Amino acid sequence: MAKDEAKVLGDERIFKISPQIKKYALRDTGFVKTNRGSFQLDRPLSGDSPYAVGNKLKITIGAELDTLKMSVTDPSGMKAVNIFKDEKTANVVEQFNYQIENLMERDILIVAPE
Q1: Strand partners, 15
Q2: Nearest alpha-carbon partner for 61 in 70, 53, 52
Q3: Rounded distance, CA 114 to CA 14, Å?
Q4: What is the DSSP-derived secondary structure letter of residue 10?
Q5: Known InterPro entries for this protein (predicted)?
Q6: Which end of the chain is more exposed for a tag (fewer CB within 10 A), N or C?
């Protein structure tokens, strides 16, 4: 897998940085610029309530817009979890797909061809 591609644990899709990506689109969608210059998005994925502590979607894009890292983590943000293996997490998967779809509409991510 190239450095501009990433896969979330349990998801069959491989995501890639869109060739049309713009830095202003990253900020518009909630990415925050880190001290190292990379852009980081940290979104809760709780299907029941936006205020409940649940899994998190973490995405990091390098400062030069050439590196992509993605994961879905536990509430602490430290351990990657597979939200696709259990029927109980259907709401979380729906929330994940909504977030990814939004990033694809804004030309930040694309699904890599197989």
Answers
A1: 6, 111
A2: 70
A3: 8
A4: T
A5: Amino_acid_metab_prot_put, Lp2179-like_sf
A6: C
pLDDT average per 10 residues of sequence, the chain (114 residues): 89 95 94 96 79 86 96 91 90 93 96 86
Distance CA 44, CA 92 (A): 9
How far, in Å, are 23, 24, 40 from residue 55 at the CA level?
26, 27, 16
d(CA 53, CA 75): 6
Tokens of 26: 């990253």
Tokens of 74: 């536990």
CB 99 within 8 A of CB 45: yes
Residue holding tokens 């880190």? 34
pLDDT at position 54? 83
Amino acid at 44: P
Among candidate residues 100, 112, 114, the one with its CA nearest the CA of residue 19: 112
Identify whether the C-beta of residue 67 lies closer than 8 Å to the C-beta of residue 3: yes
- The domain spanning residue 80 has which CATH number? 3.30.1820.10
Domain count, the chain: 1
